[in-house]
Every structure is written in structure tokens, then in C-alpha cells.
Amino acid sequence: MAAHLKKRVYEEFTKVVQQQQEEIATKKLRLTKPSKSAALHIDLCKATSPADALQYLLQFARKPVEAESVEGVVRILLEHYYKENDPSVRLKIASLLGLLSKTAGFSPDCIMDDAINILQNEKSHQVLAQLLDTLLAIGTKLPENQAIQMRLVDVACKHLTDTSHGVRNKCLQLLGNLGSLEKSVTKDGEGLAVRDVQKIIGDYFSDQDPRVRTAAIKAMLQLHERGLKLHQTIYNQACKLLSDDYEQVRSAAVQLIWVVSQLYPESIVPIPSSNEEIRLVDDAFGKICHMVSDGSWVVRVQAAKLLGSMEQVSSHFLEQTLDKKLMSDLRRKRTAHERAKELYSSGEFSSGRKWGDDAPKEEIDTGAVNLIESGACGAFVHGLEDEMYEVRIAAVEALCMLAQSSPSFAEKCLDFLVDMFNDEIEEVRLQSIHTMRKISNNITLREDQLDTVLAVLEDSSRDIREALHELLCCTNVSTKEGIHLALVELLKNLTKYPTDRDSIWKCLKFLGSRHPTLVLPLVPELLSTHPFFDTAEPDMDDPAYIAVLVLIFNAAKTCPTMPALFSDHTFRHYAYLRDSLSHLVPALRLPGRKLVSSAVSPSIMPHEDPSHQFLQQSLERVYSLQHLDPQGTQELLELTIRDLQRLGELQSELAGVADFSATYLRCQLLLIKALQEKLWNVAAPLYLKQSDLASAAAKQIMEETYKMEFMYSGVENKQVVIIHHMRLQAKALQLIVTARTTRGVDPLFGMCEKFLQEVDFFQRCFIADLPHLQDSFVDKLLDLMPRLMTSKPVEVVKILQTMLRQSTFLHLPLPEQIHKASATIIEPAGESDNPLRFTSGLVVALDVDATLEHVQDPQNTVKVQVLYPDGQAQMIHPKPADFRNPGPGRHRLITQVYLSHTAWTEPCQVEVRLLLAYNSSSRIPKSPWIEGGEVSPQVETSIEGTIPFSKSVKVYIMPKPARR
Amino acid sequence: CGRGSAPRSMPEIRVTPLGAGQDVGRSCILVSIAGKNVMLDCGMHMGFSDDRRFPDFSYITRNGRLTDFLDCVIISHFHLDHCGALPYFSEMVGYDGPIYMTHPTQAICPILLEDYRKIAVDKKGEANFFTSQMIKDCMKKVVAVHLHQTVQVDDELEIKAYYAGHVLGAAMFQIKVGSESVVYTGDYNMTPDRHLGAAWIDKCRPNLLITESTYATTIRDSKRCRERDFLKKVHEAVERGGKVLIPVFALGRAQELCILLETFWERMNLKAPIYFSTGLTEKANHYYKLFITWTNQKIRKTFVQRNMFEFKHIKAFDRAFADNPGPMVVFATPGMLHAGQSLQIFRKWAGNEKNMVIMPGYCVQGTVGHKILSGQRKLEMEGRQVLEVKMQVEYMSFSAHADAKGIMQLVGQAEPESVLLVHGEAKKMEFLKQKIEQEL
């Protein structure tokens, strides 16, 4: 636990480090290309005025310097530094020195002496600060060299007394980055006294300049970040800084206090002005809570965020954060939450509020009321009510983290989270719904709370509603009235927003399966059955009726007594729904019902095992197909593909696997068909027609393999090998076909070359997997590789041809979890007959709303394509912010697509669909030669091809000619 | 008559409350700081209609003219108990010096004064009251200030305004002469609401902080529960086809509730109409639209897309609408159901149990509002008529004053040497005084 927390402590600050690295990286890039160092010398000598020299230096800085010439350049710069009188030029030189010492492959220890030397004679504060910065760069470049570090620390200490805040800032930064706390290093200290850096830095906590104070705290944090253990003594110093006048100081101090509290959670600190003592983490918690009502919102955000990670705090302190200790005219008052709870437990639910309902109760002892130093009291109440939504979001997040680690706190914070559902900013509302979902394991909603939660179902924002459905999926409800209420509200939601249908059904599925015993007493009412009379059969296609049935059937799964309450038509409807909405309706054991059992016998079997077995069996059957005659092979493949497809439709949880395997088999089928063509033995004039078929097959196999590789999530490396292998075969096929149809050798050379490169590439990428590919096409190919390299194209083609026909069918191992990426465009619906009219040459914005399932990294891969009737196709890259992530594996794209065209005479339809862009080089595991080479960032993001993965929607548009 | 909680009395700063020392109403405080005399607020008292309604300026005038004595007058916000006596003071008693207030206060103040004058003169028939012309003349003496703008009143005296929440344009003022300074808070609110932000002041360490203490002994519950309850009540009533009456005073809470309902309607896609009784309000809403910078974060950030005060769902009310079938929500003045439009509507709707009336604030004893809140179901109206109240009666308190915790928070923020409590009850102040001494 402690280790885990410590890790967290470090995590908090790693961001800072990364930023620095980035900075260095950009500078490095600038400096890596060659330039003339001698030219600089000449230039600088030529310079007549400081302004000139500055210009030359600026120009020089634009050009990069390679590692070998750095030393020379540094010497020249230093030489000029000594001569230079103008501080601005010296400043620039100092900064250049710092830049240069960061050059990769250059060891800056040689310039350190000079740098320290010039530092001692420097008078200008700005240059001094810059030189210290240079030293910092040098020091960070040589982390192992203790002596240098000590020396630098020494220099920094000397300049700490400088009058300029900039110099002091840099000194502290240097100390933070290079100083050490351990005394053990004395022996190799070479006469330099080892200093207690922490104490030195701590002294500057009371500097007169707020910037220096901030720098001192940051330096302290830097020490901590470097893994040095801070002493507990700074805790008191840091606490004093919490009441600093400047917000950046307070903000940094809050961080420092938090760090110390994580380092020494169990130490005991005295409470001032009393004899009591408390744990340090509790004390720190109280102090940070107090900062939640700070004057500056930056500090408030910081404090609220940090609260979330203080899991070690005692529960009694934690719970205070939600209690503001209300009073009215000095008498204790109950909060609305408490009253609601009492009302609920007294059985009087939802009574109207009366005048004086909140009348205060008992008198309070005035002495006992603590208004300000009550520490944690009501910190979250304040945070959640803050004016700035940034603070509110931070508070909600903190609440979430604390609630996840403490069930009792989760129970208590529920009321507050529920209140946040009514926040004025949608982001906050959404965040609190998500938070509630995350802690829903720890809580059970009371009826009045549920009531408030359900009220949000009418929200006009789809995001909110869907998040709420998601929440209801994993909520625990305590009473049957609660279930009834939820159902009624969800049905209301359904009538108001029919597009929510699927989400609501899914929600009811989980609601039913989680609360079978609560649903049971509701069944007669819900199905409106009557003990004596037959009631009218409800409409089977009514989404509301389906919703009710989904709830009931899922509850019935674990409640065997329920089916006895069903009427005949319910069973019929069950059979229908089980078949049409198999992902929502589970298999039920319905004894003695002939009607049902005969209709859907295959799927009524217990569990989903048989279907899985079926899948396995059919795949195994296929893998034995080598022993069959060609005709039989084809038939078997076709049959199996059909089976798999049907299975995928029936069993949604197996759809991914089934589709994946079916696609693979289809590739194989195509390959077999293409190889079987009589093409290989017919006379030349008939080639053309036949080869068309073969090359079409090759092309299709390529497409399918790309789909297999990129459209499925959960594909592992062993599948990727097989997929690539299949693609290689397709490429071989393509080569053969072209070889037979083209005349002349020259183009063939190039193609052979390219193919052999591909083989080589394949070998490099999947070298580890090659042993699994025995007897395969590539296995044989690699055996013959030396021969292929030297032979003529015609021979290569011949060898390939025979090998392709001889190669065995590779077994595709099934991954654990595999899902096919899919997308549904909700908006535009494509039903409108009214064309979107706009003036030609201008643009019209089309709202696109789509749900994406199982798409990895949608921000980079999902594109929108617009096809105009003239065949023109446009690809639109949606902004990363247009994607939302409502649940695991699901994404939602809400974006605007701009359409434009020249004037048309009459309205026409454009097609809109979603594409999945892929780039095969990004998927392949990086082999050393790729990493070593200079891969420009553009290659990484470029698009190799696209796969359409949604149905296209037609939109009627009409660009009108511009009016004159 | 004010007695603050200053532990050390400051010889160089003298404070004389002319009103609202230990009560609420006719706020008027005289501060002498390093030889400069500043008057803070100039309010009237709602409870009196004789001479006691205005502060007693004779305290100053017996020694000479107001203009000679006072260096400036500062008005914290537009509520009449803070600015109601201004025309009387400047035009009738006679003051020609500068009057400082914020821009929104300058804009809205004359509307309220005019309204007040109309009721006093036209309805109650009072003589010897200030005239419209006097209000105009008085407003000519006003100098408007921006937030955080340091205004040099003369070579030595400077003032600076801070945001105070409470109502649109409410400000706290720092008065500074040399190294000595006083902060006067006026009314303020430390918890943001739907249209205004929270009061804020920097660590200016004044010698004296004069703060209101209306809720000195109260710590309030989270506002969210109240809002949620309110919305739920209205929503339920509208859903069952009932009509909802919300009696309000024209400015302040009314706008908050409007925003609350407006956003709720927007969010929940509701269709039932919301009406706002016309008159004063339309003018006031206009100013709310203008002074966007004085509102809260949400409104400030979204006004580029849409000004939240450009109500989509809230329309002007016409008397004829009250008889329309179907659900509706009506905001009507005045707030205590003692007269005017709100009472008319109430009488029309009281008989139907589907309808509801929500009282968003305190009601004075004797008013219809107070009667129904205390549970009376049969009301005697004029002409011996008995009105049976079948409609639902709800009470919600939306108050915009800082509670005890808020006051402590502000005191903590400003870090004054001494604190002076005004605008509250003596007994309650005693408690807060103890607390401030104990905890700060």
C-alpha cells in the first residue's frame, strides 16, 4: 500500500519532467544538423556593435550544431564572452552555452570550469541567472558525477544571497535539481563541505519575494521527485506558507504539505492551542480542506484535486468534509439530506415541504461551535458549491476517488453527488454521473435519491441520458417501488426520446438481472395479467412493451418461479425476442412448455457453451480440409462461412470471433478458387479473362486482411502473423497474375524486387513467430530465399506458383476476446425529403452523430467520408474533441461536416459514411532498424488506406446558384 | 448606537452608524478616517412611513452643511435599504459632493427610486416627498466606478470596489487615506448562485472591516438541495397540468429563479409557458443583459453564444393569460401577496388543488403570504368573501447574504486588524463577535 502510494506521489510530478524533456528534445533537433563554427568566430569578430553581435548570435542559434563541433563553438563563445561588455550579448552567449551543453553526445564537464569562472566575475543579475541556468543544464547532463554536483551546489549556495530574485530563483532550482540530503557523500566531497540542501532551501521559505518562495517550494518538491526523502521538519514551515499572500506560493505549499503527508502519514503532530495530538495525514487533510475555501480558484482546484488522493485519512475526518454543521439562530439544524432520510425512514415519502419544516431543533452550546478552524468540516460542501466549474469538477473527482476506497464515505457522499446532477454546467453533471457509476458497487440508492436521479432522464442532452442509463445498469435498488419507479421513468424517457431505445433496453436488462426478487412481485402488474380474465395481447413491436419484457425475462433468468406468472402470449413473445434480440434476452429454462421449447430449441439450452462448442467444431472441421478434394474443400468452406455468419448474428458475444474466423476462411476460399482456375494450364489467349478473376481475388484478399488486422479489437500478435501471411500469399498471387499478363521483363523486375522486400520485411517483423509457421507458404519461401534472390523474374514467378499451390492452410488461433469495430450513424437519419439548400460556393454544416463500438484510438482512425453524386469523395478528419467516451469500448462521434459544391439544377443525394483509417506500419512491432532510423512523425500518422465500417446515409442537398 | 466587536479602538478611525447599526434597514454609516469623512450607503427603512424611515442627518447638519462635512458618499448596491434616502439626502437636505457607485447600481437605482416614489406619493398620497426631478438631479452627482478601479476622490482619499455577489452590481468598498484603510462590505454573498458569483476580496489588511451580519448565527445548507427541491416541485406541478405562481420582488431573486427555471426548461425540453409580470422587470432585465461582466462564470462564458438573460421560454405576462387552460408558471409582483398582480392571480388559482404557489422569501406578518405559509386554508378577503385555498403552498428560502461561515471566510480573506459588525441583530452579533475573537 505504502509503495503504491509513494508511486502516486511521484506520478503527480512526472508531468513536469516530461515537459522539460520535450523542451530539450526540440532544441536537440535544431542542433543536430551541421554548421560552420569558424564562420561564427569570423562573424563575431566582424561585429562592430553589440546589436550586430546579437544578430549574429541569433542567426547562429537558428542553425543546429553537430556534437563533434560543439566543443569548438563553445570555446569561441567563451572567448567572446570574456571580451564582451554588453550584458545582452553575454546573456545570449550564456543561453547558447546552456543550449549547446544539452547537445546529445557532448560531455559538458569541460566547460563547467569556465562557466563557474565567468560566473564569479559577472555583475549583471540577468546574465548571472542565465549562467546558473547553464550550470543547471550541465549538472543535469552529468547526474553521476558527484564532485561536479557538489561544486555546483556550492556555487548555488554562494549566490543565494544575491539581491535579484531571478538569481535566487535559479540557485534554488539548481539546488532542487542537484542537491542531496545524505551526509554519506562527505568522503568524496574533496574538501567541499556537504550542505544540508533541505535546510538551505527551507530558509528561503521566508524570502521577501513571493517568486523566490515559490521557487523554494518547487525546489523542495523537485528534491522529493528525485527520490530524496524530505524531513518531516518542513511540515510546519509549509503550513505557515498556506496563509501566504500570493496564490502561487499557496498553491505550491498545498502540494508540499500533501507530499509530506504521504511520506509521514502516521507521525503524530500536536494541535496548536490544545494538548491533543493527531496523525499528520489527518492534520494535513484538515489544512488542505481549509484551502478549498481559499480566495484564489487556482489554489482551490489544486486543493480539491489533492484531497482525492489522501486515502489514508481517518474516516472520521473524511466524513466531516460532508458535514457543514448547520445551525440557525444558534440552534442545531438538520440538513435537507438528513430530513429526506428521516422522512424516508418514517415511511412518509415525498411529502411537500411545509413552512417551518426545517425549524431548528436543539440549542447549541455557543462555545462548541467552531466556524473556521473546524478543519475538514464541509470542505466538499464548499467545493461542490464553488463558483468555478473547474473547482467543482475537481471536487467531484476527489469525491469519487475517496469514495472508491471507503464504502462508508461512498454512502454518505451519495446525496451530494445526486445534487450535482443539477449543476448548471453539463460537464459537471456528466462527471458526477460517471463518478456515481464508478462507486455504485459500494452503494444502494434510497427511493428518494433514486427519484432525483431518475428526474435527470428527461435531460435533453443525449450524453447525460446515456451516462445515466449506464449508471442505472450497475445501481443497486433497495425496494420494488424503486424498480417500478425506474421502469416508469425509463418508459417516459423512451416516449420522449425514442432514439434512446437501445440504451434503455440495455439498461433494463441489467436492472432486471440484478434485482430478480424485486421484479417478481411486479410481474402481474407489468404484464397486466388478470387472475380470471384474459387480457388483450400487447403489440409486439411496441418498444415500451419490449422494454418491460426485457426487464422481466432478465429477472426470470435467476428466478425460476417467475415464468409461472406469464400468460401464453408472453411465452410466444419470449420466443420471438430471444431470436430477434438475443443480446438482450437471456436463455430461460421454461419447463413443460412445448410451444416454446420446440420453437427455439437450439438456443434454450443452458448457458452459451454449445454455441461456443459449435464454433470450435466447425473451425476444426475446416482445418482438416487438406485431405479433401478441391470441390469438397470449397463446399466445406462455403458452408462453414455461412454457419459462422449465422452464429455471429445469433450470439452477439461470439459475433466478433465468428466474423473474424469467417473472414479468414473467406480469404482462404478466394485463394483456393483463384489457384484452382484452369488459368494455370490454359492457352495464352484465354489468360486475360481468367486472370481478371484471379487478380480480383488477390485484391479482395488484401482488403479482407486489412479488415482483419484493423477492424477488430483484441487481435494479438499471433493472429497478426497469420493475417500478414495471408496478405503475402495474396501479393504472390498478384505477382504471378501480372507476370503472366504483362509482356516485357522490366516492370517485372521491379515487382519481384518489391515482393522480395516484403518477404524480407515479414521475416524481420515476425522472426519470433516463424517456428509456428511450419510448412506454410512463407516457411518454404524463406528456405528458397537465397535462390530467389539470384534468379530471374520468370523463374521466381514459377517457383512462387508451385509453392502457393503446395502450401498448407494455416490454423488461425482464436484470440481470447475479439470484437469487430462497428459504427452506426444516428444523425443524419437519411429520411428527409427536404433538401438542405445552400448557395453554391458557400458551405453548409451537416450535424453527424454516430456511435462507434470497439474502435481503438478513434481520434486518429475514424474519418467521415462524403461522396458527391459526381463521384467526388471527400474525407473529413473530425476533431479529437468530437469524440466522447461514454463507456468502455464505446465512443460517440458528434461532429459537423461541411458540405459544399458548385450549383446543381436539382437536389441530389450525397452519401455520408464513416471510415476506419489504418496504417500498417504503426501496428507492426518496432524492430531495431525502424527505431534506429529517422522516422519522421508524419509517417506515423499517415493513412495507408481506409475501411468503410458504417452503412452510408444519404443526405439530400441542393446547392443553389448564387443570386446576382 | 452601533457597537462593534473591535477589540482595540482605533483613535484615528471613527465610525458613527446613522442607521443599521444593530438592525436591518436604512443602512447609513459615517466613517471618519484620518480627517476625511465618508458616508457609506444612504438607505431607507421599509417599516416606517414617518421621519424614521430616513437616517437622521441632523447629526451632521447641526454642525454645518453636508457638502462641507462629507468628502464623498458611497452606495454599495441598489436595494432601497441602501440607497432609498439618496434623493432626500442630496436634494432635500442638500449635498453636492460626489456619490460613488458601480455602473449597474447607477443604472438600476433610479428605476427603484422612481418606483418607491410612485408608491409613496401616488398610492399613499404622501406630501413632502422627493420628486422625479430630484431623483434625476441626484443621479447627476453620481460617479460610476469599475471593479478594482482605484478612484482618487481627492489627493489623499482613494476608494476601490470589490465584487460582492448579493445582487447585480453589489460591491464592497475599500476606503484608504494614507496608510489607513477601512473596508465596507455592504451586503454580500459568499456562495455563488445561478446568476452571480461569490464575493471576493484580496488580502488588503484594512485597519477596520465593517461587515454586514444578517446571518451571524446561521450556517446554511447547500444551495443545491433547495434548487433541486424547487425545480422538482415546479416540474411536478406542471406535469400534472397545474399552474404555478411564484410571487417575487422585481429585482434580484426574481432573476436568479428565472435563470434557474429557464435552464431547467431548456435542459428538460419542457414546453409549458413561463410568464413574468411586466413593468419594472422588463427594464431591469435589460440591465441584466447589459452588465454581463457582473454575473457568474457560466453566464459570462456562454453569453457569446447566447445571453442567458435573453429568455427563450420566459415571456411577458398579460392579465388575460391567467385564465388560459393548461399548465403555466407565472412570476408576479409583489413578493408577499399583499397586493397587486400576484394577489389577483392567487385569488384566481387558489381554488384548484392542482395549482401551486411557491413563496421564495420571507413574508411579513399580516400579509396573505404569511397567512397561507402558516397553514391557513380559509382566507377572509375584502367584502367578507372567504377564499378557500386548495392549491399547494410551498416555501423556499433563497437568500443572498453570507452566513456565519461566509462572514468568517471573508474576514479571513481580508485579514483586518479589527472588525465591526453592522446590519444585524445585537444578540446575534454578540455570538459572532466571540467567534471572531476566538478564531482569528
Q: What can you tell me about this protein's structure?
A:
By secondary structure, chain A is an alpha+beta fold. Chain A contains 44 helices and 16 strands. In chain A, strand 3 (327-328) and strand 4 form a beta hairpin. The longest helix of chain A is centred in the first third of the chain and has 30 residues, at 2-31. Mean pLDDT of chain A is 78; it is low at 5-35, 183-193, 347-357, 593-607 and 923-940. Chain B is of the alpha/beta class. Chain B has 2 domains: 13-218 and 400-439, 4-Layer Sandwich (Metallo-beta-lactamase, Chain A), CATH 3.60.15.10; 223-395, Rossmann fold (3-Layer(aba) Sandwich). Chain B has helices at residues 58-61, 66-69, 80-83, 86-94, 103-123, 132-140, 223-239, 253-268, 280-290, 297-302, 340-349, 368-373, 404-414, 426-439; strands spanning 13-19, 28-33, 36-40, 72-74, 99-102, 142-145, 150-152, 157-163, 171-177, 180-184, 208-212, 243-247, 274-276, 314-316, 328-332, 356-359, 378-380, 386-388, 392-395, 418-422. Chain B has a 6-stranded mixed sheet. In chain B, helix 4 (86-94) packs across helix 6, helix 5 (103-123) packs antiparallel against helix 6 (132-140) and helix 5 packs antiparallel against helix 9 (280-290). Chain B is globular. The interface between A and B is large, with 46 and 54 residues. Chain B: Belongs to the metallo-beta-lactamase superfamily. RNA-metabolizing metallo-beta-lactamase-like family. INTS11 subfamily. Chain B: InterPro entries: Beta_Casp (IPR022712), INTS11-like_MBL-fold (IPR041897), MBL (IPR050698), Metallo-B-lactamas (IPR001279), RibonucZ/Hydroxyglut_hydro (IPR036866), RMMBL (IPR011108). Chain B: It comes from Mustela putorius furo. Chain B: Residues 25-219 form the Metallo-beta-lactamase domain. Chain B: Keywords: Cytoplasm, Hydrolase, Metal-binding, Nucleus, Zinc.
